[in-house]
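Exercise 7. Given the encoded structure of a 335-residue chain, write a plausible sequence.
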């Protein structure tokens, strides 16, 4: 009888343990406009279940450009977005209340690709350069690269033409509908195989820069700080995953799928580019923001009046530094 009671007790206990519902996952739909490997940390975090460890069900939504992404955020259609600084500055100058809390990118890794008959920077005079939008992240990186190369778009009569996302820009290059574009290494490899020429590799350019990162409406940062902290943790862990050499094949597979790359060679090039530009020094950088502000104010003068310290919020990263989360992540991958 005692044995029978014990079996019943153990069975009930097992049902209680196994049947106990887990913590409900907080759903976050995050939009992005740029179609390149800098979305990698979020794709990897979603694909590898990293965010679920922090109670988050994250989905990524690609939209046409940064302006559409901003509109989706402010209307409440998405809970956060992954924008270029330029898109944030333009939005805030128009009245949007946005805060940005972390970014894993502080370098530009692209190539200036031109038609094969253009053999020097001087040959860019009065040529057409493809961008995704005026004032967006693709445009911003193009402007920074040209500036660092000593090419003044206005003095050289360069024409910035809005084409679409990077795959569309690549096709425009291959079809000779535009003369040049500053594109990622993976796209540049495709262009060079087709006979186009590279005038510059930007990986070694030294410039105060910060790329895409986690941003959302200011009221969400105030009202849901724990959620935003968990989102930042997941992003950081995804970056650490990317930098662990043993995960190379898995990361390449994620990039190949999301970027719709046709070869393993292109996936590896995208992977190497992502590792080159991504970092665990994710705190918002005021100097980089002010540098970007200088460029964006050329097309949106009101941006020059903004106080970037009212947009960036370093408290989440500071917390993760002080609690040892970030130092441990760096130690794990040697960054």
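Solution.
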């Amino acid at each position: 009888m005692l044995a029978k009671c014990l079996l019943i007790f153990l069975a009930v206990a097992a049902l209680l343990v196994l049947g106990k519902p887990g913590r409900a996952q907080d759903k976050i739909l995050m939009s992005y406009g740029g179609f390149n490997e800098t979305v990698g940390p979020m794709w990897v975090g979603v694909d590898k279940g990293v965010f679920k460890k922090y109670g988050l069900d994250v989905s990524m939504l690609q939209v046409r450009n940064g302006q559409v992404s901003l509109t989706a955020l402010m209307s409440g259609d998405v809970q956060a977005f992954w924008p270029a600084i330029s898109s944030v500055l333009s939005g805030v100058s128009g009245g949007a209340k946005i805060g940005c809390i972390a970014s894993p990118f502080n370098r530009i890794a692209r190539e200036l690709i031109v038609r094969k008959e253009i053999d020097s920077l001087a040959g860019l005079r009065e040529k057409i350069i493809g961008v995704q939008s005026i004032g967006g992240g693709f445009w911003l990186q193009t402007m920074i690269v040209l500036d660092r190369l000593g090419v003044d778009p206005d003095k050289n009569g360069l024409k910035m033409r809005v084409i679409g996302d990077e795959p569309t820009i690549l096709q425009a290059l291959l079809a000779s509908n535009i003369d040049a574009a500053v594109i990622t290494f993976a796209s540049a490899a495709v262009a060079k195989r087709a006979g186009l020429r590279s005038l510059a590799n930007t990986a070694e350019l030294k410039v105060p820069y910060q790329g895409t990162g986690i941003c959302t409406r200011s009221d969400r940062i105030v009202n849901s700080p724990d959620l935003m902290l968990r989102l930042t943790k997941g992003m950081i862990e995804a970056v650490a995953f990317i930098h662990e050499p043993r995960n190379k094949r898995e990361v390449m597979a994620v990039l190949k799928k999301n970027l719709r790359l046709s070869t393993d060679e292109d996936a590896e090039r995208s992977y190497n580019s992502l590792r080159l530009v991504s970092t665990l020094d994710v705190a918002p950088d005021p100097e980089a923001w002010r540098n970007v502000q200088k460029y964006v104010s050329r097309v949106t003068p009101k941006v020059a009046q903004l106080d970037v310290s009212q947009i960036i919020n370093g408290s989440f990263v500071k917390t993760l530094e002080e609690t040892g989360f970030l130092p441990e992540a760096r130690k794990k991958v040697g960054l």
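Remark. The two ends are 62 Å apart (CA to CA). Students should compare their own answers with the one above.
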